[in-house]
Amino acid sequence: MDADVIKQKPNKIKKRTYFTYAISSAKDFTCVLPALVLLAIFTYYPIVEVIRISFTDWNLINDSYKYVGFKNWEWLFAGSGTKYLLNSLKITALYSLGEIAITLGGGLLFALLFNQITKTFSVLRAVVFMPRYVAMSSAAVVFLWILNTDNGILNYFLGTLGLGKVDWLGNKSTALISVLILTGWRAIGYGMMIYLSAMLSIPKDYYEAAALDGANSFKRFWKITIPMLSPTTLFLLVTTFISSMKVFQSVDILTDGGPYRSTEVIVFMIYKYAMQDFRMDRASVVAVFFFIILLIVTALTMKVSKKSVNYDS
Amino acid sequence: MSTMNNLDYRSNNAAIAKKKIAKVLQYVVAIIITIIVAFPIYWMLISSVKSQDEILLSIPTLWPREWHFENYVNVFAKANFGKYYINTIIMTAGILISEILTGILGAYGFSIGKFKGQNVLFLIVLGALMIPIQVTFIPIYIMFAKWGLTNTFLGLILPNTVSPYYIFMLRQTFLSVDNSYIEAARVDGMGRLGVIFKILVPMCKSTIVTITLVTFTTGWNSYFWPKIIAKDQPRVLTVGLAHLKNTFAGQATMNNHEIMAGAVMAVLPVIILFFIFQKYMLTGYSKAAMK
Lengths: 313, 291
Prior knowledge:
Number of helices of chain A: 13
Pfam families (chain B): BPD_transp_1
Shape of chain B: flat
Strand content of chain B: under 5%
Largest sheet of chain A: none
Oligomer: heterodimer
CATH class of the largest domain in chain B: Mainly Alpha
Strand content of chain A: under 5%
Subcellular location (chain B): Cell membrane
Structural class of chain A: mainly alpha
Distance between the termini of chain B: 52 Å
CATH topology of the largest domain in chain A: MetI-like fold
Number of domains of chain A: 2
Family (chain B): Belongs to the binding-protein-dependent transport system permease family.
Largest interface: A-B, 85 and 88 residues
Structural class of chain B: mainly alpha
Order of helices and strands of chain B: HHHHHHHHHHHHHHH
Shape of chain A: globular
Number of domains of chain B: 2
CATH architecture of the largest domain in chain A: Orthogonal Bundle
Membrane topology (chain B): Multi-pass membrane protein
CATH superfamily of the largest domain in chain B: MetI-like
Helix content of chain A: over 70%
CATH superfamily of the largest domain in chain A: MetI-like
Largest sheet of chain B: none
CATH topology of the largest domain in chain B: MetI-like fold
CATH architecture of the largest domain in chain B: Orthogonal Bundle
Keywords (chain B): Cell membrane, Membrane, Transmembrane, Transmembrane helix, Transport
Number of strands of chain A: 0
């Protein structure tokens, strides 16, 4: 009898532990299930769908649709859509470059300027950061008012300097700059804060050692600060680049993509085909192409991030 | 020793003076830049209390002659801002509740929990970060039109029910919690939900507050999807504000004082939150920078 129990025991325990493990892991899985199901329905299924729609002639005016093969892709790359795509790509690239320059370049300059540990400076920093908390929709209507041709304060200030009125938003050459002024206004304080917090974490003895070796302040900045900030620069570059490619709201409120498509960034192009022309097929093909670009950019930045540029051991 | 000090003193004097000038210059430039950056906010506030006549003056006044706080009332009366507010609150609340729940549960499942295929499924969650709504909105819109969800709160909320960012950030924090706390709670007979909501959540409070604030502001300020799915009804503040500009389009300059009042009202909740949770907001940004 005793021997039997002893004989059975390990088996039973094994069974029970396996059983409890299965239940426990099923319960753990249940925890992630809601997130997975929702992502499957509202993210992964739609990305498959948008690819499928790009091979149809679906518009919302007709109820039925049929598959048309690569017709939409032809329209985009070798048809009447090509010039609009190239235009959008150019404008998105210009916009991205502008936002990156302001966030990184401007942010770093601001970080150097506001890098003082006094009460006054901490107040100034808080104020410079404030625009980040003004929602884009509010900020956009404020700039709409500031940039107004006849009654806007900017043109008034320019007038007092003896300059003529500028039709900031109605002019092909200034519309994109106006959008960048708005985004830059909200981004520069953010770049400054990120750089400042990274600067604070650079050990002081690096600078002291360099000073003892006779390096002047410019050399110390170039040889210590810049390299030590490289992970932060990379982080800002990647996040700003990817978010700037998705720009829509500022363009939509300020210029509506115009004048003459001069601010029609790629997301605005997708939006216009889908929600104004109801050409779901054309909108989808641009959306899929945009998605491919996003994937390539993400893959490239991940590759660069892996070979991180940090000199700190 | 003393002679050396004296010599040093002389050359130091010039250096100190030079440093002082540099410092004053730094102050002056910093203050000028701060004024320029702050000006649009100031101009929004000031314009929002001016009268219609004053806003149209050819020489703008930097300080209002009369204070017209009734502009704020007008925005509510004329432009239905009260309704936009309620709509935005309902939408943001729905997004917050679902993202917090799926976020906390998902973070637990992917950190403390153990099950087969965990890593692959986690990668699938992270992969969703690379698929923005700007790419997927077309099928979602068609799907929701079929389901009768256009112009509904459910339509506004559903695509924003899971935040991979939330799961990712919280998972990192849960992983840093000492396992012995969880073991001890389990020995005491605590179930999964007990461990999550009585041990992990209180221990990771500051992270949860930070990422919840980020979630709140993204939800409150969202524009792209609300504009597509609920252009007319239920209109949220961001879309309503942009629409205000369109309704007055022909006479845009005439109503700018009221539009500015609307702009102030739309950002006020976020600004108030910023002041209450300032500590968390800034750590949130630096935390994001560290990763």
